[in-house]
Amino acid sequence: MRRLLASILILGASGAGWLGSAQAQQSCNAPAGTFDRVYCDAKLLIRADDELNVTYQKLLKRLTPQAQQTLRQTQRNWMKERDSTCVDVDPRWGSVVYSDCAARKTVDRLNFLNDRLRECLSTGCQPSKLR
After folding, report:
1. Which pTM does this prediction carry?
2. Residue 36: which of 15, 7, 5, 11 has the closest Cα?
3. From which domain of life does this come (predicted)?
């Protein structure tokens, strides 16, 4: 996944450089065009993926061994679903990642894991909600 994210960022960064330095530094709140959107989506995806990994590890440490297995399996299932939804393989072009889709799904999953972690910290872990 990390190599895939790096490829997206390189694509976005190269496009942003082509557009010129003033546009490349424009806020991601209002991207100027396709290359800016790809660059901004890649930045969001990498940041969200990093935060997701940290939150996942924190949550994992608070769970019982059985709940850890459940979380691991649901995480694998989520990754498969994300990839099947946000990645397309074309025999002519190879793999294409829809960065906006991947970023959106990663942020959604991060929010889900953060909710589970907050539950663990406040009222206790509820393994049934990991599914």
Report:
1. 0.75
2. 15
3. Bacteria
Determine the Cα–Cα distance for residues 45 and 99; give it in Å rounded to an integer. Answer: 7
At residue 93, the 3 state secondary structure works out as coil
Q: What are phi and psi of 12, to 5 degrees?
A: -65, -40
Print burial letters for 29-45: b (CB count within 10 Å at least 16), e (below 16).
eebeeebbbbbbbbbbb
Model confidence pLDDT, tens digit, residues 39-96: 888 899 999 999 999 999 999 999 999 999 999 999 999 999 999 999 998 888 888 8
CA distance 61 to 72: 12
Name every residue whose Cβ is closer than 8 Å to that of residue 82 and which is 6 or more positions away in sequence.
Answer: 102, 105, 106, 109
- Collapsing DSSP states into helix, strand and coil, what is residue 124? coil
Give helix 2-19 / helix 99-122 axis angle, nearest 10°.
130
Segment 84-120, tens digit of pLDDT: 999 998 888 888 888 889 999 999 999 999 999 999 9
